[in-house]
Amino acid sequence: MQEKQRTEIATLGEFGLIRHLTSDIRPQNSSTLRGVGDDAAVMSYPDTEVLVTTDLLMEGVHFDLTYVPLKHLGYKSAMVNISDIYAMNGTPRQMTVSLAVSKRFCIEDLEELYAGLRLACEAHHVDIVGGDTTSSLTGLAISITCIGDAPRDRIVYRDGARETDLICVSGNLGAAYMGLQLLEREKKVFEGQREAHPDFAGKEYLLERQLKPEARGDIIKALADNGIKPTAMMDISDGLSSELMHICTQSHAGCRIYEERIPLDYQTAVMAEELNLNVTTCALNGGEDYELLFTVPLSDNEKVARLDDIRIIGYITKPELGMALITRDGQEFELRAQGWNPLRE
Amino acid sequence: MQEKQRTEIATLGEFGLIRHLTSDIRPQNSSTLRGVGDDAAVMSYPDTEVLVTTDLLMEGVHFDLTYVPLKHLGYKSAMVNISDIYAMNGTPRQMTVSLAVSKRFCIEDLEELYAGLRLACEAHHVDIVGGDTTSSLTGLAISITCIGDAPRDRIVYRDGARETDLICVSGNLGAAYMGLQLLEREKKVFEGQREAHPDFAGKEYLLERQLKPEARGDIIKALADNGIKPTAMMDISDGLSSELMHICTQSHAGCRIYEERIPLDYQTAVMAEELNLNVTTCALNGGEDYELLFTVPLSDNEKVARLDDIRIIGYITKPELGMALITRDGQEFELRAQGWNPLRE
């Protein structure tokens, strides 16, 4: 552990702390009229619709501070909410941040967390407009609400997928899950349950995918620039299978996806081999990739195929056909959502 | 303890649970375009500004389930956020609700909590449009975001109070604090630290003020109906002294308030006597009354004086004069914020 300054939070109090953490935040969006410091933030959206998404992250359930640095935690917490706004085909604009912290945390810790939050917000031009900082008996809780906008005719829901639509994903899948496996292994080392030093060499990309995910605003922009409006869209937080089931269920449709079309990074494949895991299972159920899953009309086939970093992995069917994965050897397997679910045993 | 059914949350899982708790919610506001069930909720505010406020409530810090029934907790959690939108002179419209629950809680518990949330939302015509239900290692965490609207020229901030403005409060103060004292006494009985049974007779109002506070939408309506726009406004959550300091600091002003003008309920006075507490101190620092504190131009004196349930308690001064309470015998005491602060020791 490095030596660092430790200033107790009680020295500033609630209002002092919020001022300290947010005093130099300057709004970047013209829709932000008033931010931190009143009963509510004030925004203006005369010509577009307003999108709101929220997330509550609890220490020990959603993150483990043994191996996640606070700055990365802040970055990721902001990013997963920004990702939800993109998943509606919208533009993220404002964010509120509420923290509940136990006495274990000092002001320098919260500065680290905020540094990560702000880095993510700056990268996507999001204004922090308010929040709440309070105490907790045990551990850290982070609640984030992200506000964005989109013209009504550009908003993409989950329920618009139609038969013959193409199913597309951005980036690659399973890497964030592999990064988590690496970190869990590192934790066991840390706890003295294993002897060897962890070896991250050649696996930096997996760690980055787990610790510093990027919301795919670039894909949203590329789709708009190329005149493509998805018929349905989600971000992949719980795993491809789980998200695909949401789209199919809400769209009253079925689907076929091809195992060989699922985009994988080389490091993901190597790590799966090392851990003796089926890489397709990891890509289907791993979660936390924050890539975009969307469907487009068949007529957009050529336009989508031309775009970088987007892969067509299958197509939408009639609901009677169910949801299936077609393996490399041509067999059909029914898709099941085995994604991460914090409420199951 | 009464016998009740206990269904484990794991039987429904996250998505099943959200559907179960929100399936019969029907939007009441035309600004609510899409609620629960997508990456984000969608709202439309073409002609007014958007207000957003958020709160994170932690078990053991903000509420004690030994004496607060879950339905009341839900009601109060919603109400305190609704109150923040009124405090901007706005109209509350939508709400997102995130819950983190430990295994101690069952589905019936969350139904109770939601029943209270919904009762508060229905009373103020607020739509529940989204949220998150997840697990926690210890206890219950509730994060609520409330969204509202107001025409730009009607929004009231904290920084608009000017010299000679009149300081007004709605309702009466200190009752919620007295209700808390009653419940704390009851808890000691429950824990066997006292022998006698608690006696709530004649103190029902105090309990109600603590357990079932009402956001003062009626006052906002009365002010508008009578052509009064406050120059500054807040809701009283942390105590009159603390809130008055916010207004004076942000407005670069001082104030004088009169002890004899602070509105008190008869039950508050009786209870203070019983507990050997100074009733003025309780009214100044008690908090959780969720009454409105606002300032109006001196020229609105007659209009305000005619309104029910509003009391003029003092006036705004130059900043050099500081903030003071003038006691019944004419002495001046400097006001200090001793309100509840979860981050101080």
In short:
The first copy, chain A, has 345 residues and is of the alpha+beta class. In chain A, 32% of the residues lie in helices and 23% in strands.
The total tally of domains of chain A equals 2
Sheet bearing the most strands of chain A, described? 7 strands, mixed
Indicate the percent of residues in helices of chain A.
25-40%
Give me the secondary-structure category of chain A: alpha+beta
For the record, the CATH class of the largest domain in chain A is: Alpha Beta
Shape of chain A: globular
Largest interface pair: A-B, 74 and 74 residues
**With helices defined by DSSP (H or I, 4 residues minimum), what is the helix count of chain A?**
10
Oligomer type? homodimer
Give the CATH architecture of the largest domain in chain A: Alpha-Beta Complex
Distance N terminus to C terminus of chain A? Answer: 34 Å
Which stretches of chain A are low in confidence, meaning pLDDT under 50 for 5 or more residues running? none
The CATH homologous superfamily of the largest domain in chain A is named PurM-like C-terminal domain
Overall mean pLDDT of chain A stands at 91
Strand content of chain A: 15-25%
Q: How many β-strand stretches of chain A?
A: 13
What Rg of chain A, in angstroms, do the CA atoms define? 21 Å
The fold-level CATH name of the largest domain in chain A is Phosphoribosyl-aminoimidazole Synthetase, Chain A, domain 2
Q: What is the succession of H and E elements of chain A?
A: HEEEHEHEEEHHHEHEHHEHEEE
Major sheet strand order of chain A: 8-10-7-11-9-12-13
